Amino acid sequence: MAPSKKPSTKNTSSDSKKQKKEKLFHPQSRKAGQLVRSHIRKSKLEDLARKRSHKRLSQVDVLGFFYSTLPPEGELSLDELHLIVRDIWLTRHDKDLEQERAKRRKGRPKSVKEIQIEELNVREAEEYRTGLEVPDLTHGVNVEIFRKWDQKEAGYLQMLRYVRISSGDQEKVVVSRPGQHPRLVSAIKAVATMEATPSGDAEAMDTMG
After folding, report:
1. Spelled out in words, what is the top-level CATH class assigned to the domain 40-200?
2. pLDDT tens by residue, 125-177
3. The whole model's pTM is what?
4. In whole angstroms, what is the distance from residue 206 CA to residue 209 CA?
5. 163: which DSSP letter?
6. 59, 165, 174, 184: which is deepest, by most CB within 10 A?
7. Taking the CA atoms of the chain, what radius of gyration do you get in angstroms?
8. Which string of b and e fits 54-69 if b means at least 16 CB within 10 Å?
């Protein structure tokens, strides 16, 4: 009977050495530098992705609030939009703040939650004073587009028109983002065309009409 052949370890040994050569290199080598840079870049991208995700969620929450204030028909007046921001949006945490204060014993320091709510209230009040960006609920077409939102898709919110309003000057409205929806884009182009039309041509058109 022929002696059994021992399994060859040549290839295995060779593969193992090859893997070690691929994985082990000098810390100051070019390959090490490439891997470090790759790792740093990946970490930065992951961090940015987390921040974007958090921002989207926050945006959806904020826009969800204003979505809930949409009137059944038509749009809001500027005074009504200010009222919603001043009396509802800025006071939405007041109940939680009162509860935190009620739980705190006399002479005890404020809880972390109480401090956070107070800081948030101050920050949002200042933002409203200097210029708070909100969906333009005074614009009929924009309100119609907003009503079609499924209250989930954050990307859809880029379609909307946004304005900045402030408690410092409640008559002033600044368009911060005109909106990407085709209907809004068409309206902007139409206004631009009318503004570009010479007054003489406009008068001639009126006369012809």
Report:
1. mainly alpha
2. 999 999 999 999 999 999 999 999 998 888 999 999 999 999 999 999 999 99
3. 0.65
4. 5
5. E
6. 165
7. 31
8. eeeeeebeebeebbeb
